[in-house]
Amino acid sequence: MDWVDYQSLTTLLNSLIIQYESVMTPNVGLEEVWISTQETLAQIIPFYEKGNRIISFGFDSRLRRDGIVKTVKSGDAVLDIGCGPGTMSQSLSRYIGDVELMVLGDPLIPMLEAAKRSALNVNLHINCVFEYLPFKEEAFDVVMCGFSFRDARNYKEALGEFQRVLKNNGRLLIVDIGKSDNFLIRWFVGLYFRFIAGALIWIFLGVKKRSLYSKIYYTYRKYLTFNQLENLLKAQFKEVKIQQKMLGAAMIAVAKKQKTG
Ligand SMILES: C[S@@+](CC[C@H](N)C(=O)[O-])C[C@H]1O[C@@H](n2cnc3c(N)ncnc32)[C@H](O)[C@@H]1O
Predict the structure, then answer these.
(1) Is residue 155 scored above 90 in pLDDT?
(2) What is the largest CA-CA distance in the chain?
């Protein structure tokens, strides 16, 4: 058939397949925006905890505490991954006391340095990412992520690594912003992160810092809804429980490792 331009046809088909896949494939992680998000996080370090308190109205510490109290025991070996300036570990020492082993991991060295200055009783600070954890199998009783899992480059790979380094029946704790399955709540929370959170930062921390917080909206858009997160967790973990907080604007997820093979 001379009248068919096969090259244009192939190009058209390819672009249709790419568009179809981007609609049909559930969110997988921050992927290509991961590096720019990390660059933004690095700039936020000096006022990280203050900013969190402002945009969450102080609820962030309560969420960390509630998640930790229901998941961690004093005899546990704990990995705080995406540790930032050590906020989860500070909360852990306040509400649980010392644990058997406390390891902190983060890809940003300045975050690890801030954690070294602020988090107590830490055995090891490691520069690493969720998706390739430099630990042997079944090393930890608890893996915890405070407001960090949403920033993963790839959620599925991250969960695979959490599952690998957890002991049998070990617990995964994820405390984070929540993305409701209800369209209206999702829309409202999106609106909050797009406009209102930035305005609060502007008022309390100054106009220059406002734009840094606009990244949260993009991570929220890319994040998993409760249903998607539950399905992803259930594929690799057992006893998955997602507790919605603040009318679905936040969540505490707990799951147990189920031994494979
Ligand atoms: C918003 S801070 C959370 C800090 C702290 N855990 C808390 O409870 O506030 C997110 C942290 O996750 C880290 N992070 C982002 N992507 C990551 C990845 N792929 N693996 C491990 N940590 C990651 C960032 O470097 C950052 O320090």
Answers:
(1) yes
(2) 77
